[in-house]
């Protein structure tokens, strides 16, 4: 074995030193060939006597552990007065040792045959991370305290922003992921004064922890499970690509902030494209700087400038689309690297979220294997129109302005042609072509994120989600309404703003109408004069943010009518500077908003419950205005003359303001509606609406193997998903092999399907046609099954298409169901091709253990590594994440490499990687190391990326009632008469039958054990049904009262759940195993077939949940009476082994609950 050299750098505190040396000793126990070097820093404080305790400890360790070497670093002169806290002193003191540490590591490596392979530093030594980087040595942090403090320190940079005040002044409790809410007073002392350098150093260390190659913590999983789980969550990197327009950038950053609130482990990178040489004082630059300062987890990456000239005849849509396209190589490069302003190690990019006008490079995500989402900064109505535009392009060949009647878009009222967005009003212009282009490409995204909420645009969102906006009801990517996303926390305190707010403070409640038209909303001098006259005549108070088209006209007295300011003095205020729109709309004095109906402005007005007077100017604002007036009832309509460049007369403005602000019926309705929608917008934000898509009917198609056990497990998964997301529609496709001896599907399957169909209305079953497939006598059953499933391909494809084109609803007018996933059984990998062909995400449901999944994934590698039969293999079989396996515990199908069964196991193992995910009926506490190895790609050759793994267990059919009510009643009455936990239950699954000699041996073993028993007995021979003939003479009489033997099917879950049952002699089928663990019943393992030997091995050797039974596999799995007697006594008695298993069973049952 290769020698490894580890260098430890503990802090010069005896407690930290001892803990670090204990870690070193633990590592040496596991890897004796390691060499440990401990670098010692010494505090030189004249007032302190020699640290005799430390010196004595070091001498004793050096004498007893020759592989641990200590090196004294030179003393450094560092006055304690340089800092006002112990943490600050210690951190600066350690930092002064950098050069000595570097030199010591170099000399250790050069003077020894064992080079330094890792540097392990103390939690207060993070400045030494730089040394590790410089020397190219992996650096690990040893955290001598618990995971809770580690979690707090990791989260502290985020808390520093979230809780800007002192913790002692914080209202409420402090929330840290994975921990109970903390009362402020329990925070560590160094954090209780944010002005101290101790606090600053805690924040500093917390930031730098993430730069290490790993964090070693002095704790254990059972003590701090939730905290460790929260820390161990992979840091996921989300990359945003907004277009270089300040409104789109701000909205994108608000989305990033919202996601960080929901999931603090995210790391956000925002890629910035620049239209020209970056200018330091620009609006964008100052905004970026402020966000970066206040949000440490949001990093901005400046992409290189591209040379892209703006042509005079080019529309804005064409320019921005082509401009984005020119950045393709830079975006691709940025996705491959770490953010330049982050010193963290690279993190996996989980998603690319790009602006709606960035579809020219949407293919980058697919090339790099990164899910790509479009963020739509406008409303769902505009999204619906753009998705439907390719269809309208064919339906309406003429210009929209020449179209007779309203333009119909699913989910929207018919649109007057004049309400269509400006870029689509001239089909000969490139703006129209680019709208068409983007609308077509939206469907390529993995999801559409929209800045809206369901209560505002319910019918449009539903129509989009159900595919009505695309031709032929083409599946639409998932739709996520995440709004309202608003930058509400920007407060300005410049003198001019302060004067404006003071003026508003003097106005009556809801008396002021506010006029503001966005950054591009300017007017001609004649229109401004007309507006002034309208405001004056309305008689209402007003605040007007005024912009003139001509930069020459800056004198308001010359622009506006003579005497206007004198006549409106006191009730009107006109601003030529930028107005803080959010602050104004939030003010109690503001009761109306004359707006251009830009989407952000509309959402802000809705949020604050301010009714609008709609004056659209450009882009999609006419469409927004139409929806706000006609559909949402949130705005009063203003008559614009589009023949005269959108002219509005003074009379029209006067009338609109009076309607909006007065007591007219229309005004009152709009005000009431605005109040309702303000409340709904806040409710949407509070509920985190982005996590659900309640408006959409989403279909999941399940395809289980034709066997009642696999079917029941698959349906339990479906029920679990319905519990989490009730809007799902579940379709289960049932394959039926035609076997001449069976007239129809088995009675057990039919009965079960009927009971589920009655009790679960959201689950429907579709019977696929019976297949007349003759099975050849010499053909392996596994091959016959594969050919059977292959023949079902066309029927499965057709059934999915029918499910997609129809609704599960009884209403014929209901929209079609979007098939979001095809979930198939582990043995149906041939159906992966169907999912690919129909562009449906495909998942494997693995109803067995993670261990079997790991083995099947690794089998193609083992096929090469172990060319002989496993039974002839020298030594044990090694599979990542599992204990070494004795060859005899390998599953039956892989024990003969010449058989078809082995070939098909290898085939399935190879194809699992093609799916979109692997769903496993297990849970993390039961199989932690195996799950980790699968997830990390260790089970695939060359660590090939494994599809996402979802442990969803335990999935148990605990409500499955007995098919023999009379027998069940007698059995439960018998159990009720037994004491607590004395009964051992014997059951071996639907295929677990035995020969008559073995049954006689089992009976003798049970009788000799002296314990009570309940035995579900199945004989190999269907002829032998008389128990008196099968079992030893007099057995039933001698065990009467303490034993019950049943030949009929038994309700296993009911029995295991009974308090009288204390042990379970089981075949170790996975479902039976999970049920036994769930009820905390001890298992006595008697594996029979398939993968049960593997399950039994893991349950005994790895999980400690069963007592082992000696089975003679050379004699067809024979178990003697003596062996069974001994096992039952061990399981049910007071043996040390039995007690250990009982204790472990209780722990695991609790973990399952």
UniProtKB/TrEMBL annotation:
Source organism: Cinnamomum micranthum f. kanehirae
The family this protein is said to belong to: Belongs to the UDP-glycosyltransferase family.
SUPFAM superfamilies: UDP-Glycosyltransferase/glycogen phosphorylase (SSF53756)
Name under which the protein is recorded: UDP-glycosyltransferase 71K2
Keyword Magnesium (UniProt): no
One GO MF term: calcium ion binding
Keywords: Coiled coil, Glycosyltransferase, Transferase
One protein family per Pfam: UDPGT
CDD domains: GT1_Gtf-like
Domain EF-hand: 1111-1134
Recorded coiled-coil stretches: 671-698
């Amino acid at each position: 074995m290769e020698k490894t050299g580890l260098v430890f750098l503990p802090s010069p505190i005896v407690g930290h030193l001892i803990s670090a040396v204990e870690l070193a000793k633990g590592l040496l126990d596991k890897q004796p060939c390691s060499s440990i070097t401990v670098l010692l820093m010494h505090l030189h404080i004249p007032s302190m006597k020699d640290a005799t305790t430390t010196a004595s400890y070091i001498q004793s360790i050096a004498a007893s552990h020759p592989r641990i070497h200590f090196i004294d670093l030179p003393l450094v002169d560092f006055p304690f007065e340089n800092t006002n806290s112990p943490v600050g002193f210690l951190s600066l003191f350690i930092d002064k040792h950098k050069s000595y540490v570097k030199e010591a590591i170099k000399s250790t490596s050069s003077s020894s045959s064992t080079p330094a392979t890792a540097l392990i530093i103390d939690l207060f030594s993070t400045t030494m991370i730089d040394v590790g980087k410089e020397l190219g040595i992996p650096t690990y942090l040893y955290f001598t305290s618990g995971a809770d403090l580690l979690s707090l320190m990791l989260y502290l940079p985020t808390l520093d922003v979230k809780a800007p005040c002192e913790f002692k002044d914080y209202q409420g409790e402090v929330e840290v992921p994975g921990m109970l809410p903390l009362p402020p007073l329990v925070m560590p002392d160094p954090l209780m004064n944010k002005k101290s350098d101790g606090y600053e150093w805690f924040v500093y260390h917390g930031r730098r922890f993430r730069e290490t190659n790993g964090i070693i913590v002095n704790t254990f999983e059972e003590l701090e499970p939730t905290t460790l789980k929260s820390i161990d969550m992979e840091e996921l990197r989300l990359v945003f690509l907004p277009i270089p327009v300040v409104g789109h950038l701000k909205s994108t950053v608000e989305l990033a902030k919202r996601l960080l609130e929901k999931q603090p482990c995210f790391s956000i990178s925002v890629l910035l494209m620049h239209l020209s040489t970056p200018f330091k004082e620009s609006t964008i630059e100052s905004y970026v700087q402020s966000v970066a300062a206040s949000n440490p987890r949001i990093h901005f990456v400046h992409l290189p400038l591209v040379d892209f000239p703006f042509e005079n005849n080019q529309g804005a849509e064409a320019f921005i689309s082509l401009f984005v396209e020119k950045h393709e190589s830079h975006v691709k490069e940025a996705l491959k690297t770490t953010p330049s302003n982050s010193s963290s190690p690279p993190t996996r990019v989980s998603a690319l979220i790009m602006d709606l006008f960035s579809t020219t490079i949407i293919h980058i995500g697919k090339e790099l294997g990164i899910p790509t989402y479009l963020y739509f900064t406008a409303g769902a109505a505009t999204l619906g129109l753009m998705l439907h535009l390719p269809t309208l392009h064919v339906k309406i060949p003429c210009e929209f302005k020449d179209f007779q009647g309203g333009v119909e878009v699913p989910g929207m009222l018919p649109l007057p042609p004049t309400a269509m967005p400006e870029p689509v009003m001239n089909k000969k212009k490139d703006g129209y072509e680019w709208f068409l282009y983007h609308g077509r490409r939206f469907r390529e995204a993995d999801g559409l994120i929209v800045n809206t909420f369901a209560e505002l645009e319910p019918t449009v969102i539903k129509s989009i989600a159900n595919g009505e906006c695309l031709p032929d009801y083409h599946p639409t990517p998932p739709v996520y309404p995440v709004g309202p996303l608003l930058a509400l926390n920007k407060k300005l305190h410049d003198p001019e703003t302060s004067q404006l707010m003071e003026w508003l403070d003097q106005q009556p409640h809801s008396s002021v109408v506010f006029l503001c038209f966005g950054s591009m909303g300017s007017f001609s001098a004649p229109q401004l004069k007309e507006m002034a006259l309208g405001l004056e005549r309305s008689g209402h108070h007003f605040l007007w943010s005024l912009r003139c088209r001509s930069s020459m006209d800056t004198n308001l007295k010359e622009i506006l009518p003579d005497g206007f300011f004198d006549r409106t003095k006191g009730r009107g205020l006109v601003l030529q500077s930028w107005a803080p729109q959010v602050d104004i709309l939030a003010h109690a004095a503001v009761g109306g908003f004359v707006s251009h109906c830009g989407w952000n402005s509309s959402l802000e007005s809705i949020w604050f419950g301010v009714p609008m007077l709609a004056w659209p100017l450009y882009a999609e604002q006419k469409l927004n205005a139409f929806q706000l007036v006609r559909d949402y009832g949130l705005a009063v309509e203003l008559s614009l003359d589009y023949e005269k460049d959108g002219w509005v007369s003074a009379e029209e403005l006067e009338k609109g303001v009076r309607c909006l602000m007065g007591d007219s019926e229309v005004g009152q309705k709009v005000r009431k509606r605005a109040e309702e929608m303000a409340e709904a917008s806040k409710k949407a934000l509070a509920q985190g609406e982005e996590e659900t898509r309640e408006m959409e009917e989403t279909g999941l198609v399940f395809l289980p193997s034709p066997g009642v056990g696999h079917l029941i497990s698959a349906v339990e998964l479906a029920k679990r998903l319905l519990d989490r997301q009730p809007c799902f529609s579940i379709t289960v496709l049932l394959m039926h092999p035609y076997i001449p001896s069976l007239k129809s599907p088995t009675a057990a399957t039919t009965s079960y399907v009927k009971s589920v169909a009655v009790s679960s209305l959201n689950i429907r079953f579709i019977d696929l046609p019976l297949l007349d497939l003759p099975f050849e006598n010499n053909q392996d059953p596994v091959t016959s099954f594969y050919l059977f499933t292959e023949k079902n391909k066309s029927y499965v494809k057709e059934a999915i298409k029918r499910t997609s084109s129809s609704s599960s609803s009884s209403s014929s007018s209901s929209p079609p169901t979007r098939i979001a996933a095809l979930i198939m059984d582990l043995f149906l990998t041939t159906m992966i091709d169907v999912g690919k062909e129909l562009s449906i995400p495909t998942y494997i449901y693995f109803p067995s253990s993670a261990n079997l999944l790991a083995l099947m994934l690794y089998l193609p590698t083992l096929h090469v590594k172990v060319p002989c039969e496993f039974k002839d293999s020298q030594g044990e079989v090694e599979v990542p994440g599992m204990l070494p396996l004795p060859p005899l515990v390998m599953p039956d199908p892989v024990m003969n490499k010449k058989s078809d069964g082995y070939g098909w196991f290898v085939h399935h193992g190879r194809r699992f990687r093609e799916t979109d995910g692997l769903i496993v009926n297990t849970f993390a506490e039961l199989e932690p190391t195996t799950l980790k190895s699968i997830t990390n790609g260790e089970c695939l050759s060359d660590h090939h990326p494994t599809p996402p793994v979802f442990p969803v267990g335990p999935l148990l059919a605990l409500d499955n009632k007995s098919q023999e009510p009379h027998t069940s009643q007698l059995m439960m009455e018998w159990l009720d008469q037994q004491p607590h936990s004395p009964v051992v239950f014997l059951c071996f699954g639907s295929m677990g039958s035995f020969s008559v000699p073995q049954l006689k041996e089992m009976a003798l073993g049970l009788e000799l054990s002296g314990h009570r028993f309940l035995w579900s007995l199945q004989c190999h021979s269907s002829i032998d049904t008389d128990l008196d003939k099968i079992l030893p003479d007099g057995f039933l009489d001698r065990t009467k009262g303490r034993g019950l033997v049943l030949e009929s099917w038994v309700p296993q879950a009911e029995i295991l759940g009974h308090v009288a049952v204390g042990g379970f002699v089981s075949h170790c089928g996975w479902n039976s195993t999970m049920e036994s663990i769930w009820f905390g019943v001890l298992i006595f393992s008697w594996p029979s077939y398939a993968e049960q030997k593997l399950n039994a091995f893991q349950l005994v050797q790895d999980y400690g949940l069963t007592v082992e039974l000696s089975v003679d596999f050379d004699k067809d799995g024979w178990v003697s009476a003596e062996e069974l007697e001994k096992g039952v006594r061990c399981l049910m008695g007071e043996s040390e082994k039995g007690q250990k298993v009982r204790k472990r069973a209780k722990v695991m049952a609790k973990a399952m609950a």
